[in-house]
Automatic annotation (TrEMBL), chain A:
PANTHER family linked: ACETOLACTATE SYNTHASE SMALL SUBUNIT (PTHR30239), ACETOLACTATE SYNTHASE SMALL SUBUNIT 1, CHLOROPLASTIC (PTHR30239:SF0)
Molecular-function GO terms, alphabetical: acetolactate synthase activity; acetolactate synthase regulator activity
Protein name (Swiss-Prot/TrEMBL): Acetolactate synthase small subunit
EC number: 2.2.1.6
Keywords: Amino-acid biosynthesis, Branched-chain amino acid biosynthesis, Transferase
TrEMBL record, chain B:
Organism listed in the record: Halarcobacter ebronensis
Keyword terms, alphabetized: Amino-acid biosynthesis, Branched-chain amino acid biosynthesis, FAD, Flavoprotein, Magnesium, Metal-binding, Thiamine pyrophosphate, Transferase
EC number: 2.2.1.6
Involved pathway(s): Amino-acid biosynthesis; L-valine biosynthesis; L-valine from pyruvate: step 1/4; Amino-acid biosynthesis; L-isoleucine biosynthesis; L-isoleucine from 2-oxobutanoate: step 1/4
Cellular component terms (Gene Ontology): acetolactate synthase complex
Needed co-factor(s): thiamine diphosphate; Mg(2+)
NCBIfam families noted in UniProt: acolac_lg (TIGR00118), PRK08527.1 (NF006319)
Family in the record: Belongs to the TPP enzyme family.
The record's free-text note on cofactor binding: Binds 1 thiamine pyrophosphate per subunit.
Identification of the protein by name: Acetolactate synthase
Residue stretches making up the Thiamine pyrophosphate enzyme N-terminal TPP-binding domain: 4-119
CDD domains, sorted: TPP_AHAS (cd02015), TPP_PYR_POX_like (cd07035)
Length: 165, 564
């Protein structure tokens, strides 16, 4: 028997973690600092206040082996302003992307593809159009990928928000 | 009635029954110092460096079990304090450290003596605060003391802008802390503990592996009782020295890189290791995948992040160690344990065959002899602090510790310069004991200015320099692992330590024989003054046993002929 086998188990998993934290100026830096100081990944992070309370919700998407994920959850819980940490198993995840494309690109093609990803044209100017889409993170990744053909000028992704089913 | 923020700080410290504060003034904290001048219930000890203020508060806190308090100014005052904060954080020492900050109107403008103090202290404190509004001050100070001293203890930092200390507000010190997000787990899981106890009772070679948490949780005597009741042997980490008392027959010794053969073999052979407030530090475990390889692991800790951080744990138990050990004692009374007589006598045999020892000499003083001799002469009448290096390891090995909180050392961070100021805090907090600091000729120069603080405040710390004219521990590694390339560790050029301490107004000795040493020690004790005994010891001594970095605990270099 060896107690330390799992220490070398490096299979990487992806996790969506939500953190309920007191609104105070230091809170975000505490959480980000925890990840950077320990060498953990943040793939995406979104924050917004919870309406009618003194708390905010952060949604963090992270990757790591089982031991790392375990530590992330425990370390987050250990922070004094953290009320609750949820390691989601079964969630609805959504992400939004905004893409700006030069006006000389084939607009009708773009419109068709955007609609296939629940997206649409948001704005049109003399030089560019802006399209947006909101969908599952992996589909947003696909969409962004496809859109790269149309020489985008700017791509902005929102990061993931999630809710337990 | 409304009072200033500065006065609130003082009144809050009064409410917390603080009786000593270590600190150093400056522009941003002057309002508080003005109130310190006016108040009369706590002593303020002016250290000569902010790092020393924190270490002194640590020594005071570690040796007395109370929360240590320090006050420093903004900018350089605060950055000087950071090493101390990091040291206290690594060793889970309860402190409240207050710093001044530039006025809120200037924050963010790179003002004079402005630094992002809470940004710097975040990774080396349990929690920190920037006070934006005077009305938050009493609550924050209350919370700080609570957070510092509960759960896994640690330092808490409060940064107060100068205008906040000048501002006035209503003062009402809260009776209770209202922190819905902070609720350390005190009570262990009963079913889990029961399962663990059954596993322990069924094992053939169980071992209590005790760490510094046992001292922080004040349960050394309960652990002794539990060990006696079950007849299970005990090994201690560096931070747990004193838990069992060195003449206890179930103590197998200190384990780890410079641990005893018997203790390391016990950890190697055990089939059930029970961690009581220890954290599987790499200086203790050696090569991790070989550590306690045959054992089921029971891990008890107040801090859930410590559990299973490094090793797989069969029985994780989160809870206050004292509460948990008390419950283990009760359960043990009704449990049938295997008979461990053979296991204990095997380990005691190891201990007899391969004891800690050194080749003593009459022509030159051996550093180990000094420590052993002080132990024989002072024993439980002294509280011991150390700096960092070979002398630290020899102290852990050769001083006969008999009670918890008798040994103060920088374990987690390994901070040279810790010893003298910590011993000063010890002297302030324990007037009935002799405060000894074992130090090296390298370490002592890192906070030597505190001799002045000791003299001024009549704190009779006796510093014993084991003077080998080397940065000994680093030289040891150079000798063993760098083909003797002595890079920047030769300290042949030295100050006259005797004159140095006398220049500060203390008493100094330089000794070259055993007889001279004993005379100097007796004289220093009699004079009750801050003292420094510069002991010329053999130069090339090596700390043994040693587990080379990255090796397993059973692959030790033992005490052999290379230790002339
Ligand atoms: C602040 C700091 N700097 C550097 C080190 C690295 N270090 C560890 S032990 C040591 C040598 C200590 O020498 P000395 O105080 O003379 O003690 P000795 O080992 O000779 O007993 C050094 C430089 C440290 N631990 N702390």
């Amino acid at each position: 028997m060896n107690n330390f086998n799992h220490y070398y188990d490096t299979e990487t998993i992806r996790r969506v973690i939500s953190v309920i934290v007191i609104n105070e100026h230091n809170a975000l830096s505490r959480i980000v600092g925890l990840f950077s100081a320990r060498g953990y990944n943040i793939d995406s992070l979104t924050v917004a206040p919870i309406i009618g309370s003194e708390y905010s919700r952060m949604t963090i998407v992270t990757t790591g082996d089982k031991r790392v994920i375990d530590q992330i959850v425990k370390q987050l819980n250990k922070l004094i302003p953290v009320l609750k940490v949820n390691e989601h198993q079964n969630v609805i995840e959504k992400e939004t992307v905004l893409i700006k494309i030069p006006i000389d690109q084939p607009l009708s093609d773009i419109d068709v593809i955007a609609r296939a990803y629940n997206g649409h044209i948001q704005n049109v100017t003399d030089d560019a159009i802006v399209i947006s889409a909101t969908d599952e993170p992996s589909r947003i990744a696909n969409f962004t990928n496809i859109m790269s053909k149309f020489k985008p000028l700017e791509v902005v992704r929102s990061g993931v928000v999630a809710m337990e089913r | 009635m409304k009072i200033t923020g500065a006065k609130m700080v003082i009144e809050s410290l009064r409410e917390e029954r603080v009786d000593v504060v270590f600190g150093y003034p400056g522009g941003a904290i002057m309002n508080v110092y003005d109130e310190i001048y006016k108040q009369g219930f706590f002593q303020h000890i002016l250290t000569r460096h902010e790092q020393a203020a924190i270490h002194a508060a640590e020594g005071y806190a570690k040796s007395t079990g109370k929360v240590g308090v320090a006050i420093v100014t903004s900018g350089p005052g605060f950055t000087n304090a950071v090493t101390g904060l990091a040291d206290a954080y690594m060793d889970s020492i309860p402190l409240v450290v207050i710093s001044g900050q530039v006025p809120t109107t200037i924050i963010g403008t790179d003002g004079f003596q402005e630094i992002d103090a809470v940004g710097i202290s975040r990774p080396c404190t349990k929690h920190n605060y920037l006070v934006n509004d005077v009305k938050d001050l009493p609550r924050i100070i209350k919370e700080a003391f609570h957070i510092a001293s509960t759960g896994r203890p640690g330092p808490v930092h409060i940064d107060i802008p100068k205008d906040v200390t000048a501002d006035v507000g209503e003062f009402k010190y809260p009776k209770e802390v209202d922190l819905p997000t902070y609720k350390p787990t005190v009570n262990y899981n009963k079913r889990q503990l029961k399962k663990a106890m059954t596993a322990i009772a069924k094992s053939k070679k169980p071992l209590f592996y005790v760490g510094g948490g046992a001292i922080l949780a004040n349960c050394a005597y309960e652990i002794r009782e539990l060990a006696e009741l079950t007849n299970i042997p005990v090994v201690e980490t560096l931070m747990a020295r004193g838990v069992m008392g060195d003449d206890h027959k179930l103590l197998i010794g200190m384990l780890g890189m410079h641990g005893e053969f018997a203790a390391n073999m016990a950890a190697h052979d055990t089939d059930c290791i029970i961690s009581l407030g220890a954290r599987f530090d790499d200086r203790v475990t050696g090569r991790l995948d070989e550590f306690a390889k045959k054992a089921k692991v029971v891990h008890i800790d107040i801090d859930p992040t410590s559990i299973a951080k490094l090793v797989h744990t069969n029985y994780p138990i989160v809870g206050d160690l004292k509460v948990t050990v008390e419950a283990m004692i009760e359960t043990a009374k009704e449990t049938e344990f295997n008979d461990y007589t053979n296991w204990v006598s095997l380990l005691r045999d190891y201990r007899e065959k391969e004891p800690l020892r050194f080749n003593d000499s009459d022509s030159v003083i051996k550093p180990q002899w000094v420590i052993k001799r002080v132990g024989e002469l002072l024993g439980e009448n002294a509280i011991i602090s150390t700096d960092v290096g070979q002398h630290q390891m020899w102290t852990a090995q050769f001083y006969p510790f008999s009670f918890p909180r008798q040994f103060n050392t920088s374990g987690g961070l390994g901070t040279m310069g810790f010893g003298l100021p910590a011993a000063m805090g010890v002297a302030r907090g324990n007037k009935d004991k002799i405060s000894i600091n074992f130090t090296g000729d390298g370490s002592i120069l890192m906070n030597i200015q505190e001799l002045m603080t000791c003299v001024e405040n009549k704190l009779p710390v006796i510093n014993i320099i084991l003077n080998n004219s080397y940065l000994g521990m680093v030289r040891q590694w150079q000798t063993l692992f760098y083909e003797n390339r002595i890079s920047q560790t030769d300290l042949s050029l030295q100050p006259d330590f005797k004159m140095l301490v006398e220049a500060f107004g203390g008493v100094g000795y330089r000794v070259k024989t055993k007889k001279e040493f004993e005379e100097a020690l007796n004289d220093a004790i009699e004079k009750k003054k801050p003292a420094m005994i510069d002991v010329v010891v053999s130069r090339d001594e090596i700390v043994l046993p040693m587990v080379p970095n990255g090796h397993a605990l059973n692959e030790m270099t033992l005490i052999g002929d290379n230790n002339e």
